[in-house]
Amino acid sequence: TNMPGYGYIKKGFYKSKSDIFDVYAVLASKVLGGPGVERRPGSSGEGKTVAAAVQGGGNTAADFFHRIGNDMAQVDPKQVETHLRRSVPILQHDEHIELAFAVGRDVTVLTTKRMLMIDVKGWSGKRVAYLSLPYTAMRAFALRSAGG
Fold this sequence. Notes:
Blueprint lengths: L19 H12 L18 H6 L5 H9 L3 E3 L1 H11 L9 E7 L2 E6 L2 E8 L5 E8 L14
Antiparallel strand pairs: 1-2, 2-3, 3-4, 4-5
Protein name: Bacterial Pleckstrin homology domain-containing protein
Pfam family, one: bPH_1
C-alpha cells in the first residue's frame, strides 16, 4: 500500500478454516479491476506445481545449479495458462499470460495485468506463495543479460 508504515499487509490463514482463493478473488477484483476469478469445482491449488507441469519435474542436477544462480528459463506461456486455469483459480477471466519463466519449482508469469510470482515452499511443496504485482504499482524494473 502507499499508507505510511503499511508498505504491505501480510495475513496467514488456517488450512481447514478458510479458502485463500476466495480471499484472493476479492482482492484481485479490487486491485486489478475487471471480472472476477473463475472458480472451478475441485480447483484447490494443490497437486502438481506449475513448473513440474510445464518442465516435466525440474529435479535434475542442471536444475539445481540453475536454482543456485537463480537462472530462469522461458517456458511455454500457453501451457502455464492452461495449467493455472485448470488447477489454481488465480487468473481473471480477461487475463492472459504473455511470458512465463521457471527455475526449479518456482515460476514468474507476466500476464496482461500483472507480474505473478509463484514460490513453492519447503521440501514437500505443499505450501505455495503467490505474489501479485499489478503493472500500475511498478515504478521501475531492471533486467540482467545471461553471462557469456
